[in-house]
Amino acid sequence: MYDLLKGLRVVEASAFVAGPTCGLYLAQMGAEVIRIDTVGGGPDFRRWPLAENGSSLYWEGLNKAKKSVAIDLGRPEGRELAQRLAAAPGDDGGLFVTNFPVEGFLSYETLKKLRDDLICVRVMGWADGSQGMDYTINSALGLPLMTGPQGDERPVNHVLAAWDLLTGAYCAFGLVSALLARMRGQGGREIRAPLSDIGAATMANLGFTAETLLTGRQRPRMGNDVFGAFGRDFMTRDGEKLMLLCITPKQWSKALDVLGIAAEAAAVEAELGVSFARDEGLRFTHRDRLYPLFERAFAARTAAELAPAFDAGGVTWGSYQTLDAALGDARLYKDNPLFEAVRHPSGLTYDAPGAMGTIPQDARRPVTPAPKLGQHTDEVLSEVLGLSGGEIARLHDAGVVAGA
User: What distance in Å separates the CA atoms of residue 52 and residue 72, rounded to the nearest whole number?
Assistant: First the structure.
């Protein structure tokens, strides 16, 4: 947690990953992020993984450091409250993050009538407004047909919601960019961020689309081979798999030296008339000639022998480990100052991260847990909308809002 965005008020009406991720990043940089939640919880409020008491570890992970206002959005009065919150006055307000449809009661045109300089960041599935989620966008992009072992035609869906996460980060960047423009007198605006466009643009930025356009074919499956460079998993004498990566000339030479196969690699170079040190693409092109050298070298030593030798020699490598094992890894979790033991709304206490970036010049603030559903309803209605205690009590009595 840091204070870089302290004083900003962001209102979030979203579910699942991309929108809440955007709000999470802003909150961890110090913004006041107020979630508009439906009474009883939205569609992701009980999403897996669940604690034994039924609380969503997913929900309380994505909504750390936020406030929650519970409103019945199915009623006209509840929808009006949501609109007023999104467009509430104040120089540091009027910042809205949502994945609600383009049309409807939270449309930009509707909210702009309440606040002309409103900034709205809207997560979408497809740019035309049709439904799309991370896994359906990913399947349309072709990646599951490039992923997996050679010779297997079955699509392989990876478990990481990459497009959701990338879209959430892009939305946070877009909101801060639009705010800077507003501060320079350029007014408000809506930024639409469809997962489909984030995915398509990223594929193009990485050269995937140009490769297919120019060759007329999609990149084939390569198992664990790193495309265009030398990298793969290799088995040690004691049955451990280690990942080796040789992209730069230095990485290549260091690996050869530690494994003791520099002379053998040089013999392959001489036979083929190439220089692997100068061109990573050649290492990839001729990987089938090089792999046996590395396989034999790995098979001659144990992981316990290779690990310190790699570290001492400056080799770029990694071990394959379960998440259980990773939790004991000092660099990832165990001794990482990013994490802190926090008591969560589920009533459980476990380690949770603050802001992912580290600012050496600033002290980290404590990690703040997610709110209980509706925990800040009265506070926000009073402080942001200026409602009196009597008005708030009436809304509770009518079932329009709810507390924790």
Answer: 28
